[in-house]
Design brief:
Number of helices: 7
Family: Belongs to the peptidase A1 family.
Oligomer: single chain
Low-confidence stretches: 1-18, 30-34
Protein name: Peptidase A1 domain-containing protein
Distance between the termini: 43 Å
Keywords: Aspartyl protease, Glycoprotein, Hydrolase, Protease, Signal
Structural class: alpha+beta
GO molecular function: aspartic-type endopeptidase activity
InterPro entries: Aspartic_peptidase_A1 (IPR001461), Pepsin-like_plant (IPR034161), PEPTIDASE_A1 (IPR033121), Peptidase_aspartic_dom_sf (IPR021109), Plant_Aspart_Prot_A1 (IPR051708), TAXi_C (IPR032799), TAXi_N (IPR032861)
Radius of gyration: 22 Å
Length: 457
């Protein structure tokens, strides 16, 4: 914390110089410890998914079409490139629908603690250099955009001075600190130009981060708060199709499509379910999540009877289901997960449970399938409000640890507390591993979530 406060002090004295469809390639992001052992890789991803879930459940602080590629990263996320500044500087970002601030590693002084990931050299990461951009400006304390992050009360903290004084300058917006499931970042807010082919967006609010922990790349927040990329661009819809991942940094990409034009009808073959009204709860961060109504979980031919209080978000922000591109494995509250896991164990009773592998991977249940010519695995289907059914391919919910063992790729806390809850916030978080090879659509104009099976390669 002392390091953060020291760097925040530096922020105050550090000088800054002042089409309708966009498609952006997505690549999977975040590194895991280098290892050829699948159990270690899965254990790392399970831990990261749980850390992400804990943050989302208890968060702290805080033209018409554009196409851009998304690339998968070995730690479980998907990254994209954006260009800011005049002239433009290209920076890498993780696409995250579970948060809203857009920020990049900023200045040559950028530091990242605990970022010694394999294949990641902090000294060679793309960093935005404000003094090289003629359009870079600090956000003023009285600028309404400062209140996006700090709330309307921030203006009461702004210093007042005689406007006739030659020394009277606009006080800068306070430094921000944002915490994620995997780490944190701290910096100052800028307004900058966001540059797309044939389109430039001016006065875009972006975070200039000088210090991060376990967050070497920038994050592009796609949440529902005003500082998010979709709201700042005025998007009517955005969509993506995530390539099937092998927990590596593959050069193959899929596309993220940003749609600014009016939405005419439904996308062919897509099933839709409405976004729910966000609960206010005790934490304002719940308001930036994408809540959907999951009505049923089907394992094989059995309806898993999940208590209603877990499926519907309460006014306190507890319960319900959110969609999160920043999480790897889907998270379920203890009681929900136990019901689902026990149903898989019951229907796969012909296979022995690999308890040793469960300890190594942090996943359960795991089944020993050695010597089997074929394996019968129950289907996993999510039924949403409105009749939309997400029937998951087997590779989206089971992973091979080796040729002899498979594990369910859904995570939960160890054991449930009283009432089956291990904490507040969303009870189910639909991660990107379960979204692989689906066309995923966030129809913001019509306030609905859509999906259909589709090869994303």
């Amino acid at each position: 914390m002392a390091a953060i406060l020291f760097l925040l002090f530096l922020f105050f004295i550090f000088p800054f110089t002042s089409p309708t469809t966009i498609t952006i390639p997505l690549s999977s992001s975040t590194k895991h410890p280098s290892s050829s052992d699948p159990s270690k890789i899965l254990n790392n991803l399970a831990s990261l998914s749980l850390s992400r879930a804990h943050h989302l459940k208890s968060p702290k602080t805080k033209f018409s079409l554009i196409k851009t590629p998304l690339y998968s990263r070995s730690y479980g996320g998907y990254s994209m490139s954006l260009s800011f500044g005049t002239p433009p500087q290209k920076v890498q970002f993780i696409m995250d629908t579970g948060s809203s601030l857009v920020w990049f590693p900023c200045t040559s002084r950028y530091l990242c603690a605990d970022c010694n990931f394999p294949n990641t050299d902090i000294t060679k990461l793309d960093k935005f250099i404000p003094k090289l951009s003629s359009s870079s400006k600090l956000v003023g304390c009285k600028n309404p955009k400062c209140a996006w992050i700090f709330g309307s009360n921030v203006q009461s903290q702004c210093l007042h001075c005689d406007p006739n004084s030659q020394n009277c300058t606009d006080q800068a917006c306070p430094p921000y600190v944002v915490q994620y499931g995997l780490g944190s970042t701290a910096g100052r807010l800028l307004v900058e130009s966001l540059d797309f082919p044939n389109k430039t967006v001016t006065d875009f609010v972006v975070g200039c981060s000088l210090l991060s922990t376990r967050q070497p790349e920038g994050i592009a927040g796609f949440g529902r708060a005003p500082e998010s990329l979709p709201l700042q661009l005025g998007l009517k819809k955005f969509s993506y199709c995530l390539i099937s991942r092998q927990f590596d940094d593959t050069p193959v990409s899929s596309d993220l499509i940003l749609d600014m034009g009016p939405i005419s009808g439904e996308t062919q073959g897509v099933s839709y379910t409405p976004f729910l009204k966000n609960p206010v709860g005790s934490n304002v961060a719940f308001q930036e999540y994408y809540y959907v109504m999951l009505r049923k979980i089907i394992v094989g031919d059995r309806h898993v009877k999940v208590p209603y209080s877990f499926l519907v978000p309460g006014s306190d922000g507890n319960g319900g289901t959110i969609v999160d591109s920043g999480a790897t494995f889907t998270f379920m509250e203890g009681l929900v997960f136990d019901l689902v896991a026990k149903e898989f164990e019951k229907q796969m009773g012909n296979y022995s449970v690999a308890t040793d592998v469960q300890k190594l991977t942090g996943l359960r249940p795991c089944f020993n399938i050695s010597g089997e010519n074929s394996v019968l695995v129950p289907e996993l289907i999510f039924h949403f409000k409105g009749g939309a059914k997400m029937q998951l391919p087997l590779s989206n919910y089971f992973a091979f640890v080796d040729l002899d063992v498979v594990c369910l790729t859904i995570v939960s806390d160890n054991g449930a507390t009283q009432g089956g809850r291990s904490g507040g916030g969303p009870a189910i978080i639909l991660g990107n591993f379960q979204q692989q090879n689906f066309y995923i659509e966030y129809d913001l104009e019509n306030d609905r979530f859509g999906f259909k099976k589709q090869s994303c390669a």
